[in-house]
């Protein structure tokens, strides 16, 4: 009996496990680097997707800007001239531009820098009210710091405070000589019906040698302002200039096509509007509201 039991026990006892073989340090390091790269790729992909959604919302907002029912608080007179702007500074930022720490002093510099960083994070997350709470008063304390004027202007733009946003972005233009925010600045003036300022900024942008994407954004605003005034034919001509539907469309191609389709519809060019909305649907049927817009034209 005892012999049988011992034999049975022998059958169920498993051999001792071999100690797990450890990977060489270089392999462990390589795997960690691969995991970190995968994480960064995922973050970049999510950021691109979020940015794409934001851009598409902006495309619709840009088209609807001229359909706002509310009049500006201080509508300009028809005879009003555009703002007198100093020529763009050549050879980089204006000598008046300052660093944040130089503007507020070494002692307060770190605190202001933290506020600016909090505002940047909030802005990137789309929490513009939180960004404004962090920025409020900074432009007054550091009026010659371009990054402060830039973020303050963009935040106010997102909050729909057109006049204040334009003031900040005009200051940014004078301090840096940069033209990449001209479309946003022009859109602030468009919302206030300051047509001469829109036209002036568009002329400056055209002469600047800006990238195709920035020119497309400026063209959308300038054409939209013409449409706001009822000049649909001229608006369509402006937005159609040099516009081609590429085989591989980028975001600015889609935004320009959407704005052009909307203007064509308002101008009564329904077949062309239908064609453009159809092309957009072929590119991405989830782009803004192209499916609904296309269906409404049938």
Order of helical and strand elements: HHHHHHHHHHHHHHH
Q: How far apart, in Å, are the first and last alpha carbons?
A: 92 Å
Label the overall shape: globular
Strand content: under 5%
Uncertain residue segments: 1-15
Number of strands: 0
The whole-angstrom Rg is 28 Å
Helix/strand structural class: mainly alpha
Mean pLDDT across all amino acids: 83
Assembly form of the protein: single chain
Number of helices: 15
Helix content: 55-70%
The biggest sheet, with number of strands, parallel, antiparallel or mixed sense and barrel status, is: none
Write the layout of secondary structure elements.
Blueprint: H1 2-12, H2 25-64, H3 100-104, H4 109-124, H5 128-135, H6 138-141, H7 146-158, H8 162-176, H9 182-191, H10 195-206, H11 212-228, H12 232-240, H13 251-266, H14 270-283, H15 290-296
Structural write-up:
The protein is an all-alpha fold and 298 residues long. Helices cover 66% and strands 0% of the residues. The protein has 15 helices and no strands. Residues 1-15 have low confidence and may be disordered.
Quick take:
The protein has helices at 2-12, 25-64, 100-104, 109-124, 128-135, 138-141, 146-158, 162-176, 182-191, 195-206, 212-228, 232-240, 251-266, 270-283, 290-296.
Quick tags:
66% helix; globular; mainly alpha; disordered N terminus; 298 residues; 15 helices
